[in-house]
Amino acid sequence: MNLFISTLLSAVIQVVLFSLVPFIWWLIFHRKKESFFSFVGIKKPDKSKVKSIFIAMIGVLLVCEGLGIIEKLCLRGFETADSTFSGMGISAIGSVIVYAFIQTALSEEIFFRGFLLKRLSAKLGYYVGSMITAVIFGAMHVALVYATGRTLGIISFVALLVYPIVVSLLLACVNEKKANGSILPGWFIHGIINLIEGIGKLSL
User: Fold this and answer.
1) 82-115, pLDDT tens digit by residue?
2) For residues 179, 181, 182 and 186, what is the CA-based torsion angle, rounded to 10 degrees?
3) For residue 152, what is the DSSP state?
4) Which of 1, 8, 85, 120 is most exposed by smallest CB count within 10 Å?
């Protein structure tokens, strides 16, 4: 199957799967209060805060990229999910974009920052909810590695756990504190991070 089509199909399936629990929850408890898209934060941020949101996004992106370099040094020689595109060259750029923005960033933002964070924050407060969400987000990245039968050294384990935790906390801050609960800024940042990583693999 054509790489782009197969990547797009995988992306759609993953978004649907990651949206399933949020959708059922919305259907049972929030259907009469707001639309599903609003429920998970797929909505426009306040126009009056566009400038401050943009500045925050740039700052968070730079911090994440800086920390990402450190993470990659700790994971040197370790294959990640986007290693699928290694050495494919510019012909795979469309697939990388779909993978970066839809398959990973969109699906994860809907479930983690759009659903889990908001539900936990409503019960436990923003800071506790944000931290719990971040730890689960980081643990997921580690669990995915072990699920493939691979093992991690202590440095790789810490890097693979801590980096997603920090990213999650920063994305949550932008979404909730700057964008009034919209996950669009976090989705864009997340997508760019993944895109840069994916493009870097194309020539390897």
Assistant:
1) 567 777 778 889 999 999 999 999 999 999 999 9
2) 80
3) -
4) 1
